[in-house]
Write a structure and sequence with these properties.
Elements (H helix, E strand, L loop, with lengths): L8 E5 L2 E4 H23 L4 H26 L21 H18 L4 H26 L9 H7 L4 H6 L1 E2 L2 E2 L3 H19 L9 H18 L7 E2 L3 H11 L1 H5 L14 E2 H22 L22 H10 L3 H15 L7 H16 L14
Antiparallel strand pairs: 1-2, 3-4, 5-6
Helix pairs in contact: 1-2, 1-4, 2-3, 4-7, 4-8, 7-8, 8-11
Length: 377
């Protein structure tokens, strides 16, 4: 018996049904946008820039997520091609969404004259914010859950509230709330990123790369608990290395691998991609530092190469500290001379002007004559 406590449809406008899933994803996108706008103000980047990026990035992410999913489930769509466009029936993947959004951002950011790494760093916490909120859409739809568990495990060991425990009851069987695991993992991640981005050691691009490393670590361990993973048939050795060797810490904590039909595949795609992203991220950070491509720090000013775009406040402040105007220097020298009482040699022209000024002052001074005559009555 399925106990779906929450109606997936939030409300209807005529024949148009508005789903909770879409509202939750929209809320996640809005939260990410506000975070990016707030951080962008520190660097003088207008909020319209991030709004345009969101308007282009969201459709690109949806398209990328759908293409990614369909590519690995092509057997289900090759005979019904029109079903590819029926996204409302489900079937998107977050790694595909990230790929689509990054491709869009690369084009958009460079056309605006900014460095991709600098903008990606600003948006890194926003990505996590969107994922923290967006995962609750899976909760409402009662999807993307893990393997079966006992009700005692959810209530007694995890101490979850009733509304989560009851929603995890799918056709009479309780399941791991993997949506919650990932949401909490990303919540810790966003706190870590917000702290790290104020540190002087952080170089450009490293916050964005760090996001991928952090998310991939959590996704690797959580993905194997799920029962709906995209998979492929790979070598037995690779599958054993991923599912037994690398995933061993989860086994020590009492978790079990989610069911994966052997006929469908033996290697979860998201797990393999997570491992590759972690390795590639670490290597990229090291290579960029060694080769000098990461000399710019996160806290350095951001300046667009496009004409007509003013430098950021940080850039103006840095310029004022390093370059002083001649007038300011002259005024400062004059002030120091007066305060110390030093004598300064004057040019002949200056002496002549002062002499003329003194003579003029003497000539204009009124002369008061004494009254020596007697006054008559």
């Amino acid at each position: 018996m399925q106990t779906l406590l929450i109606d997936p449809v939030a409300f209807s406008i005529g024949s148009l049904r508005v789903h909770w899933y879409g509202l939750i994803l929209g809320l996640g996108a809005l939260a990410g946008l506000l975070l990016a706008i707030r951080e962008g103000k520190r660097f003088g980047i207008p909020q319209e820039f991030f709004m345009d990026l969101l308007l282009l990035g969201v459709p690109s992410a949806i398209i990328g997520a759908r293409i990614y999913y369909v590519a690995f489930k092509w057997e289900d769509y090759k005979d019904n091609f029109l079903d590819v466009f029926k996204i409302w029936n489900g079937g998107i993947a977050i790694f595909g969404a990230l790929i689509g959004a990054i491709i869009c951002a690369l084009i958009f950011v460079r056309r605006r004259g900014y460095s991709f790494w600098r903008i990606a760093d600003i948006c890194a916490p926003s990505l996590l914010a969107g994922q923290i909120i967006g995962r609750w859409g899976n909760f409402v739809n009662q999807e993307a859950y893990g393997g079966p568990v006992s009700e005692t495990f959810l209530r007694g060991e995890l101490h979850l509230p009733n509304f989560i425990v009851n929603q995890m009851n799918v056709q009479g069987v309780f399941h791991h709330p993997t949506f919650l695991y990932e949401s909490l993992w990303n919540l810790v991640g966003i706190v870590v990123l917000l702290i790290i981005r104020r540190q002087k050691f952080l170089r450009s691009g490293e916050l964005f790369i760090g996001y991928f490393i952090w998310y991939s670590i959590g996704r690797f361990f959580i993905e194997a608990v799920r029962t709906d993973s995209l998979a492929f048939q790979g070598s037995t050795g690779l599958a054993d290395f991923i599912n037994n060797t690398l995933w061993a810490p989860m086994t020590w904590m009492g978790f079990e691998l989610g069911h994966l039909d052997p006929a469908y595949g033996n290697i979860r795609i998201s797990q393999l991609l997570s491992v590759l992203f972690i390795i590639a991220g670490i290597i990229l950070i090291i290579v960029r530092r060694v080769t000098g491509r990461a000399n710019v720090r996160y806290l350095d000013p951001i300046v667009s190469t496009k004409a007509g775009v003013s430098p950021t406040p940080e850039a103006e402040l840095q310029t004022n500290k390093t370059v002083k105007s001649p007038a300011a220097t002259s005024s400062k020298n004059h002030k120091e001379t007066v305060e110390t009482g030093e004598l300064v040699d004057k040019s002949p022209l200056t002496q002549a002007q002062e002499t003329e000024a003194k003579q003029t002052q003497v000539d204009e001074t009124p002369v008061i004559k004494p009254d020596t005559e007697d006054k008559k009555e």
